């Protein structure tokens, strides 16, 4: 199995976060490290997740640029960028800049957006679920077009471009695209058509293991429908650290048996670097198996 980690950048200082990432950069068990794309802190509530506006919260993409500059090995990304927050041209420019800073280590995560109280607080229009997914597909087409073409034209419902280009280009053909989301009807079709990796979140209600198995089957069907080899899509899952490294290793093994080949571990807010070292010891046997 392969592993990455994510440290919540709320209720934490830049210094502490940087210390954790530096330690992770030296631990070969971890292949990647991630920020996330919320403008306000989150908190767990009964039955789900709510916003916590009074809790200090650092910006994920700004952090990613800084963290790219202080690490050498880790693949880095924002899991996942909320498309409604930025025009895809702006997001592409940010992504190519971070890729340049990191020396070509960027993984580009994208999602349709889901936290409605956050969007309402800032006046961001998410729209209906269908609108979000149409906008996500258009953003994918725009971003891929900008990353792979010298100039790019586009005429969609949400975005229109004429002779658009982004310079400098990335340091390889393009960053791998990770799509987050659990929806079977539209999201997994987008994964099959556009993504290099699919990220399933077990952090929200409905993210149980049995549901994941079923959605893996659906993703394989979506790939076959368009003539794509299902093995071309990396299947990843986000898991909470929970009761500690030993328990997480058992859980990761079960998710691996269910179809995940890559686990992103969500550490608790304010995590100490030593916790990452303990986790690396627990996960080492799975990585080497």
| CATH class call | Alpha Beta
**Number of helix segments?**
9
Instruction: Note poorly predicted spans.
Output: none
Strand order of the largest sheet: 1-2-5-7-10-11-12-13
CATH-level-2 architecture: Alpha-Beta Barrel
Oligomer: single chain
Please state the CA-atom Rg, rounded to the nearest Å: 18 Å
Order of helices and strands: EHEEEHEEHEHHEEEHEHEHEH
CATH superfamily: Luciferase-like domain
Keywords summarizing the entry:
289 residues, alpha/beta, TIM Barrel, 9 helices, 42% helix, globular
SSE layout:
Layout lengths: L1 E5 L7 H12 L4 E6 L6 E4 L2 E4 L8 H11 L4 E4 L2 E2 L5 H15 L3 E6 L4 H7 L6 H20 L3 E4 L4 E5 L12 E4 L6 H8 L2 E5 L7 H17 L8 E7 L4 H14 L3 E5 L6 H16 L1
Parallel strand pairs: 1-2, 1-13, 2-5, 5-7, 6-7, 7-10, 10-11, 11-12, 12-13
Antiparallel strand pairs: 3-4, 8-9
Helix pairs in contact: 1-9, 2-3, 3-5, 6-7, 8-9
Entry summary:
With 289 residues, the chain is of the alpha/beta class. It contains nine helices and 13 strands.
Explain how this protein is built.
The chain is α/β, with parallel strands linked by helices and 289 residues long. The protein has a single domain (2-288), classed as Luciferase-like domain (TIM Barrel), CATH 3.20.20.30. The chain has helices at residues 14-25, 60-70, 88-102, 116-122, 129-148, 187-194, 209-225, 245-258, 273-288, and strands at 2-6, 30-35, 42-45, 48-51, 75-78, 81-82, 106-111, 152-155, 160-164, 177-180, 197-201, 234-240, 262-266. It has an 8-stranded parallel barrel, surrounded by 6 helices. Strands 3-4 form a two-stranded antiparallel sheet. It has a two-stranded antiparallel ribbon with strand order 8-9. The chain is globular and about 50 Å long. The protein starts with a strand and ends with a helix.
């Amino acid at each position: 199995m392969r592993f990455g980690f994510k440290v919540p950048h709320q209720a934490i200082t830049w210094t502490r976060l940087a210390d954790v990432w530096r330690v992770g950069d030296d631990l070969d068990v971890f292949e990647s490290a991630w920020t996330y794309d919320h403008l306000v802190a989150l908190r767990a509530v009964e039955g789900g997740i709510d916003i916590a506006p009074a809790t200090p919260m650092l910006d994920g993409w700004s952090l990613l640029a800084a963290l790219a500059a202080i690490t050498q090995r880790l693949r880095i990304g924002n899991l996942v960028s909320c498309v409604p927050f930025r025009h895809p041209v702006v997001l592409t420019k940010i992504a190519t800049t971070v890729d340049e800073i990191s020396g070509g280590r960027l993984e580009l995560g994208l999602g349709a957006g889901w936290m409605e109280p956050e969007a309402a607080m800032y006046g961001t229009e998410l729209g209906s679920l269908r609108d979000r997914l149409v906008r996500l597909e258009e953003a994918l087409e725009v971003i891929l077009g900008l990353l792979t073409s010298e100039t790019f034209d586009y005429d969609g419902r949400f975005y229109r471009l004429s002779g658009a280009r982004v310079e400098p280009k990335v340091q390889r053909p393009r960053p791998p695209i990770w799509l987050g989301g659990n929806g079977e009807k539209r999201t997994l079709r987008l994964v099959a058509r556009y993504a290099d990796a699919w990220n399933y979140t077990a952090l929200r209600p409905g993210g149980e293991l049995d549901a994941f198995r079923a959605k893996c089957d659906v993703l394989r069907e979506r790939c076959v429908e368009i003539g794509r080899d299902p093995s071309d899509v990396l299947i990843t899952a986000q898991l909470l650290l929970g009761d500690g490294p030993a328990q997480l290793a058992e859980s990761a093994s079960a998710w691996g048996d269910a179809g995940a080949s890559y686990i992103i571990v969500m550490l608790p807010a304010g995590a100490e670097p030593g916790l990452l070292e303990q986790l690396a010891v627990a996960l080492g046997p799975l990585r080497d198996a």
